[in-house]
Amino acid sequence: MKKVLTHRLVLPIAALIALVAVNTIARPSFVSVTVQNGQLYGPLIDILRNSAPLMLVSLGMMVVIATRGIDLSVGAIMAVSGAVALTIIDGSPTPDDLGTVLAAIGVAVLIGLLLGAWNGMLVALVGVQPIIATLVLMLAGRGVALLITGGFITTINSAPYKFMAQGYVIGLPFAFFVSVAAIVIVALVERRTALGMLTEAVGINPEASRLAGVRARGIIWGAYAASGLLAGLAGILYSSNTMAADSNAAGLYIELYAILAVVLGGTSLMGGKFTIAGTVIGVFTIETLRSTILFLGVPSAVAPLFLAIAVVIVVLIQSPRVRGIVTRVAQGMRGGTKAEVAR
Amino acid sequence: MSSASEARPVVEMRGITIEFPGVTALDGVDLTLRAGEVHTLMGENGAGKSTLIKALTGVYAIDDGSIVVEGTPRVFRGTADAQAAGISTVYQEVNLCTNLSVGENVMLGHEVRGPFGIDWAKTHRAAADHLENLGLALDTRSLLATHSIAVQQLVAISRAMVRDSHVLVLDEPTSSLDRGEVEQLFAVVRGLRDRGVAILFVTHFLDQVYEISDRLTVLRNGRLVGEYAIGELPRGELIAKMIGRELDELDALARSADRDIDRTGDPVIRADGIARRGVLEPADVEVFPGEVVGIAGLLGSGRTELVRLLYGADRADAGRVEVQGRAARIATPRHAIDRRIAFSSEDRRAEGIVGDLTVAENIVLGVQAKRGALRPMRGAERDALVADYIDALGVRPANPDALVRNLSGGNQQKVLLARWLATAPQLIILDEPTRGIDVGAKADIQRKVAELSAQGLAVVFISSELEEVIRIAQRIVVMRDRRKIGELASHDIDVDDLVAFIAEEHDTQGILESPENVA
Asked: Which one of A158, B7, B122, B323 is separated from B277 by 20 to 30 angstroms, measured CA to CA?
C-alpha cells in the first residue's frame, strides 16, 4: 500500500481524478456519452479529440526537457507546418485526392523535422543555450508561416484533410488514434531501445555521460528533431480542425501548456528522469481544466488566470519544502511527543 | 602548554553527525575550542573538515549531536544564527565587497549613525580603530579592490572583530598568500589569541600548523581520530594519523608490486611528450599488459591532467600516442573507448556516477554507450551482467534497482569500476578510486585491481595514499608542478623514500630510471 501511495504518478493521477469528479458533480452530463450514427459524442470524447495536438507537442517537449533543454519554438513550428500543408493543398488541382493530402502532410511534417533539427544543431553543435536557440524560431517561425501563406489566412476544402481532426474511426475521433500512435511510438523508441536511458543519463550528468562514451550530441540533436517532427504533425491536426492556416493563432502558447503538462506529469525541468505516462496524464489534466473553464462560462480573457491558479497549487504540492512544512504541521497536530517516543 | 589545557572552552561540539543520502559525512565527531587558543583542524580530502566547519558556522544543520557556545546549547538554522552566537568565518575566497572602501567593508551593517543618517566620518574613524587594534594602518577610504588578497583577508578578520566574535574560523586563509603575508596574518592571529579569541584554523601546510597551533583535532573518513596538544604530536605521527595506517586489513592483501612484468612486447599504451599548454609539460608514459603503473604527486601536480590527456577527456596539443604499437589519435573519450581504454575520474559525483539512475543502469551505461542506443541489452543478458558485477565487486546494497546516489562512496566507486570492467578494457585508468571511502571498500577495490592486472589488464592507478600506490603498482611515475619528475620501481622503496622523492629538488635528467632497470 505504501508503495502505491509513494509512486511518483500518484499526485498527477489524483489531480486528474479530482478534476473529473468535480466536473461530474457540477454537471452530471460531463461523463455522459451518446451514440449518433455509430460515433461517440460527449465532453469526455471532446477531450480525447482536442487534446491530440497538445499530446504530440508535449511528448516532444518531454524528451527535450529530459536532456536539460526546452523547446519554445513548437507553436511556431505548428504554424509553419499548417501553412505548408494548406498552401500545397490550396494550390493543387485535386484537393480532395488522398494522394495530394498525404503528400502535403508528408512535406509539412518533414519541414517540422528540419526546423527541429535546426534547433538541435544550435543547441548540440553550436552550444547555444536551449531557451535562446529555440526563441529564435519561436519569434521567426510565425513570420515564415505568414510568408508561405502570403500574409493571408489560407482556407481550403478537402475531405481527406478534414478527416485528420474531425473524422471518426470505429466510433472514436481519428485524432485520438493519432495521439495513441504517437504515445506508443515514443514509448517503443525510448523504452524498448536504450535511447531513453541514455537520454536520461545525459540530462542527469552530462560530463559523466561524456566520459562514459555516450554520444550526447546526437542524443540532444535527436530530441529537438523529434520535438519538431511531433510539432509539425500537431500543426496538421490544428489546421485540419479549423481548415484554415492562421499563422498567428496556430499553436499560440502551446509551448507553455506543453511544458506545464510535462511538469504536471512529474518530469523535472532540471532534466533527467522522464515519465511518458505522467506526461499523458498531464495533458489530459490540462485539457480537462480547459473544458471546465469553458463550461463555467469564464470569459476567455480571464481563463489563463484559472490555469495559473491551478498551476500554482500543483507546484506547491510538488515542492519538497512545502511538503516538509505540511508534514511538520500534521505531526504537530497529532502531538509532538509521538516522534520523540519513536526515537 | 600547561596553561592551554586549563583554558575555558568557548565552543563544545559533541557527537556531531551529518548524513547526506547514502553517506555519513560526519560520524559522532567532537570538537572543543578554547579561549585564547589556536586550534587546527587536520585531515585529508574527504575527512570531513569542511563539513564540520559548515556545521559550526550554520551552513549545514546537524542530524545528531550538540553544539554548546559559551555554556549555552545552540541550534543553528543558518549562518545568521552562528554569527549571532559570536562565530565568524573568514574563507579562502574572501567574501567582501571589493567595490566598496576598506572602511565600508569593515563596518558594513555596523555603520555609526548620526542625526542625519550614517555619520561617515565617525564610521571611518571606528574602522581605523578596529584595524589599528590588529596592527594595521590602512587608508579606510581606499577601495578594497586596490589591496592584495592578504590585506583583504585581514580586513575580513577586522570585520569579524567588529561583530565582537569570540570564535574566529579561518578556512584555508593562507593558500594564496606568500611567505611575508603569512607572517603578517599570523601576527594578527596571535594578537587575537592573546586577547582571548578562540581560533579554528584549517590549512594543508604542515609547517604553518606547527608554527601557529596550540592544539590539533584530526579527522579521518568522517570520524574523530583524536585531539592533541601540539607538543605531543610530532609531524610523522600526525601524518600517520591523517592517512591512517589501516594496515591490519590492507596488509593482508598480497603486494602486487613485487610481481615481475614482461616488458618485451608492445606496451598497451605509449605516450611520447604528451602535453597541453598551461596544464601539463611534455611527459612520457608507457604501460605494459598486466602492469600497474602508479602515479604519485600532490594535488595539482599534474597527475590527473596527465591521465585526462591519455583518455582524451581533455585534448593534448602535443605529443604522440601509440596503442598496441600503432599510432593512435585520442582526442575524445570515444576514441579512447574504441581502443578499449577506460577511465574512472577522481570526481566521482560530478564526472562518474549518474545519480538518479539505478545501479544496473549505471553499470550497463558504458557497454550501452559503446553499442549505441539502437542495440539495447536484452533483459536476461543485462540482468546477468549486472548480477555478476554486483557479486564480483561486493556492491552493497546488492539491489540493481537502488538509485546510485543513495549508495555510499565506496559502493559508488565499485559501480563505476563495474561499468568499466563490463566494457572489457585492455587499459583502465583509475584516478583516486579509493578517496573518501571506507577501508573495507578500499580493500575490495585494491584486491580487484591486483587480480585483474595479474590476468593481463593494464592499469594506471592514481592515489594520494602513497602506501597504496607502493603496494599496488610495480612502477611509479612521480609528478610535481605539472611535470613528470621521474619514475621509480616500487619493490625497493617505502613511503618515506617516495615522499622524499616528491619533495626534493631534482635534476630531471639525473633521476630517470629506465624501465629496463625497473624490471
From this structure: B323
Residue B287 grid coordinates = 604501460
Residues B187 and B224 occupy one common structural domain: yes
Residues B30, B109 within the same domain: yes
Tell me if B373 and A211 make a contact (CB, 8 A cut-off).
no
Cβ atoms of B49 and B436 closer than 8 Å: no
How confident is the model over A76-119, as pLDDT tens digits?
999 999 999 999 999 999 999 999 999 999 999 999 999 999 99
A195 CB within 8 Å of a chain B CB: yes
Does the structure show a pLDDT above 50 at B515?
no
Whether B152 is covered by a domain: the verdict is yes
Residue from B100, B140, B146 nearest B121 by CA: B140
Q: Which of B245, B264, B289 is the last residue of a domain?
A: B245
Task: Check if A322 contacts B (Cβ < 8 Å).
Answer: no
This complex has an ipTM of: 0.84
| Closest residue in chain B to residue A271, using alpha carbons only | B356
Q: Is B32 helix (H, G, I), strand (E, B) or coil?
A: strand
Cell of A224: 529537438
Contacts of B377 in chain A (CB under 8 A): 194
Q: Which residues of B touch A211 (CB under 8 A)?
A: 311, 313, 333, 343, 345, 351-352
CATH code at B223?
3.40.50.300
- Look up residue A191 and give its DSSP letter: H
Q: Which residue has the higher pLDDT, A178 or B153?
A: A178
Chain B residue with Cα closest to A195:
B373
Please list, in sequence order, all residues whose beta carbon lies within 8 angstroms of the beta carbon of residue B503, skipping any fewer than 6 positions away: none
Q: Which residue range is the domain that position B273 belongs to?
A: 248-340+425-518
Domains of chain A, by residue range, sit at 2-297, 303-335
pLDDT per position as a tens digit, B244-257 = 655 455 655 656 77
pLDDT of residue B368: 94
Are B435 and B474 contained in the same domain? yes
CB spacing of B375 vs A194 below 8 angstroms: yes
pLDDT bin (cut points 50, 70, 90) of residue A343 is: very low
